[in-house]
Amino acid sequence: xxxxxxxxxxxxxxxxxxxxxxxxxxxxxxxxxxxxxxxxxxxxxxxxxxxxxxxxxxxxxxxxxxxxxxxxxxxxxxxxxxxxxxxxxxxxxxxxxxxxxxxxxxxxxxxx
Length: 112
Prior knowledge:
Elements: H1 3-25, H2 28-36, H3 43-59, H4 64-84, H5 92-107
Helix pairs in contact: 1-3, 1-5, 3-4, 4-5
């Protein structure tokens, strides 16, 4: 594995680990966002657990494809939420994460 691949995997692990922690801990801005999207309060725990699964998958050799699939599942939900509320400018980071997750998935497809 080259340096670029390692950097992408470490970065994706960090992003999804931090995001997981935020959803599970539920600071006020996260709770307000879920309420604004009309989602039940318990959903952020499910999303946080999925994000934690993605982070673990990205971090474990041989499981990166599973991490990428889990990340893509979460990111589809993010896109749907942002589309429904017409928050176009907030789609940039999820779009980058989709691109990186897709790259990891394609690169590790043979491990599925």
